[in-house]
Amino acid sequence: xxxxxxxxxxxxxxxxxxxxxxxxxxxxxxxxxxxxxxxxxxxxxxxxxxxxxxxxxxxxxxxxxxxxxxxxxxxxxxxxxxxxxxxxxxxxxxxxxxxxxxxxxxxxxxxxxxxxxxxxxxxxxxxxxxxxxxxxxxxxxxxxxxxxxxxxxxxxxxxxxxxxxxxxxxxxxxxxxxxxxxxxxxxxxxxxxxxxxxxxxxxxxxxxxxxxxxxxxxxxxxxxxxxxxxxxxxxxxxxxxxxxxx
Length: 246
Description:
The protein is mainly α. It is built from eight helices and four strands; from the N terminus they run ααββααααααββ. A two-stranded antiparallel sheet has the order 1-2. It has a two-stranded antiparallel ribbon with strand order 3-4. The radius of gyration is 18 Å and the shape is elongated. The N and C termini lie far apart (about 50 Å).
């Protein structure tokens, strides 16, 4: 039985997306090349509470996630073929600008060096989405971001439950609300491939211990800021009303 052109295109996009998600390992998605070797080890005693390896890596992960999800959100604003996709883009841009501002606020207080560039794997996510247009762009970008947001969600919960550092706890609170909002908005697009989402929510692969957190920027290098856009501010009026953009 011959396959229709539309069906063939769908199969091609789904297959390409699957290969992309398979090639990009979980830790790279989050912005680090491995998880902490000793997550509970205290690496600094700060006036905000002890800082563990897991705490430090979490701040780096949140910053790094914004370095590719913010641009992809801007792309969704421009290329999204539906109002729902463009609305999701608004939430991505506003949410990651707020998270980035908090990361840049607390990192100096905790002595954490933040990355200034997305990893090659993260840039590939953006490139994979940018290569598509119309509904194919919507489906590709929404599925990629739904997978990655779903994978970092448990990390946020664990940090929030275990950290003794008040600044990291603040970031975890904001990240939890932001990621849940983004997941909700991406699902509202109606184009997320849940077969891919469910398949990718498996245990992350174990990587060699010698693959370390991305190197800090050179001494004196300015930290790139993700520019907040007041016109895209996400405001939650009440738990019942849900998030809105104004």
